[in-house]
Amino acid sequence: MNYFKKILQFAVPYRRYGFLNIFFNILYALFSALSFAALIPMLDVLFKPEQKVLEEPIYTGLGNAKNYLQDYINYQVTAYSGDDEMKGLVLVIGLVLILFLLKNAFNYLAMYFITFLRNGVLKDIRNKMYQKIVDLPISFFSEKRKGDVIARITSDVLEIQHSFLSVLELIVREPLTILFTILIMFGISTKLTIFVFVFIPIAGMIISRIGKSLKRKSDKVQREQGEFLSIVEETLGGLRVIKAFTSENKFFNTFKESTNRFFKFSNSLLNRQNLASPTGEFLGILVIGVLLWFGGRMVLIEKTLDASSFIAYMGLAYNILTPAKAISKASYGVRKGNAAAERVLEILESENPIKDPAQGLAKTDFTTDIVFKNVSFKYEEDYVLKDFNLSLKKGQTVALVGQSGSGKSTVANLVSRFYDVNDGSILIDGTDIKNVTKASLRGLMGLVTQDSILFNDTVRNNIALGKADATEEEIIEAAKVANAHDFISELPEGYDTNIGDGGNKLSGGQKQRLSIARAVLKNPPIMVLDEATSALDIESERLVQDALEKMMQNRTSLVIAHRLSTIQNADSIVVMNKGKIVEQGTHEELMKSQQGYKKLVEMQSFAG
């Protein structure tokens, strides 16, 4: 129920639809009960014409309300029909039809308004989840598989709509339908109604027993769904490798194992769920059967109930069955929805440890330097950087080189504040970056990574990602600086060409030059290049390297280097090993020292 309350908070902006739903549900419940009660005068006209009421009855108080109402309708029917009994029958049939029509009209209106609330909550939860996914640190998603996150924002949110939000439809309508029906049933026969109540707790206990393990079973189904979505996502991402290593069967078997588990869990869950409806129906019919025996005895032997009232009473008793079944089904839904809500709220309630300070500085320019001061950092158990110190002055190009795992990319992640340092501090113009707003800090930086991360959109929109209001001239100028304009012009629709998922319609060099054009257009004072040429062939590297050199002019650049060509002209080259600086100087100085750097140059292999 705790999860239900949290999900209901999303319904607050749509509460007017909720109130309209409640209003029409009250009318629906009232007319649902009245439509069956109206059968009594119709049956009286058919079966007891000798009991016509010729004089208008007098209301004597609440205790006589039922008889007064019955006699009043009988009197009006008699007055309208005169000697023509068919006329009276048509009138009563018309009354019953009008009541049923109103009941269904109010039902439609109640459903109409709740639709806006349900879909509005669905939309807001998804928006909030996406906003949270974008806001949470990169470290959060290194622990969660992408497919599992996709399952939460799609099927789990949909499950909440089907389970929790369907309860909103029932929370007023069904209990009120039962309440109004029972009130009228009491009006017809108190003795018979008390007899009905003996069976309700028994039915409730049986249904409750069936539903206890539903949440646990549902949780397994949803987790397994996340599992096989992850396998699909990984397969699509690595299809080329899977085919190259003829691993299709291995991946198919992994997927088949997951779907088999899903099959088993789903069968168990649905069979348990499907038990609710027939159980509820049988218990209802059992109550009706006992009622027929007990009520029939009152009509035939005791003569304490007339036949027309008994038939209407049976209709009312059956009228309780549908809402009772819906309530029992909804209780299953809540249990099932609990598992989905738990998974959704796990993301929504995750705290982002990388927060903006309350009085954060919104930095608009870069004037002096970036300083790493005794920085220590670890992703998990072992430190990747330990007491790391580095100064990067404005206008300088500093290159980081070293073997794979030496901590080079970590430096780029920390300066962009994708992660926070464990110890020490990173200062920009003398201010700790933790005291600067994330948006303004990242606004000062342009990032070009080893993997060209592009989006399924046009060339123009990919370049203008960091500057939405860029003019056509600015986009073309940025593309020229990145040596990308010529190949873009040859594309079928030029800058309006869609480049496909991840830019897969372009070559590696073309993708990288678009990434550089994107950084150039943003025009930041600080550039972070994370092995920007390592994945390219010689010709593409030459074009990209030329673009990088043009881009780095008059900018402060932190270059994580893979190849010698990228860093020969750097103001300072920092050689790293196991998270520490082992050498530092210009290319010439380090070559003369004949230590680790020279060895790396000779091997021509700077891995990242």
Automatic annotation (TrEMBL):
Residue span, ABC transmembrane type-1 domain: 19-336
Residue ranges of domain ABC transporter in the record: 370-603
Primary location recorded for the protein, binned into one broad class: membrane
TM annotation in the entry: 20-43, 89-114, 178-207, 282-301
Keywords: ATP-binding, Membrane, Nucleotide-binding, Transmembrane, Transmembrane helix
Membrane-related topology note: Multi-pass membrane protein
SMART domains per UniProt: AAA
Full protein name: ATP-binding cassette, subfamily B, MsbA
Any one GO CC term of the record: plasma membrane
Subcellular locations according to the entry: Cell membrane
Superkingdom assignment: Bacteria
GO molecular function: ABC-type oligopeptide transporter activity; ATP binding; ATP hydrolysis activity
Alphabetical list of Pfam families matching this protein: ABC_membrane (PF00664), ABC_tran (PF00005)
SUPFAM superfamilies: ABC transporter transmembrane region, P-loop containing nucleoside triphosphate hydrolases
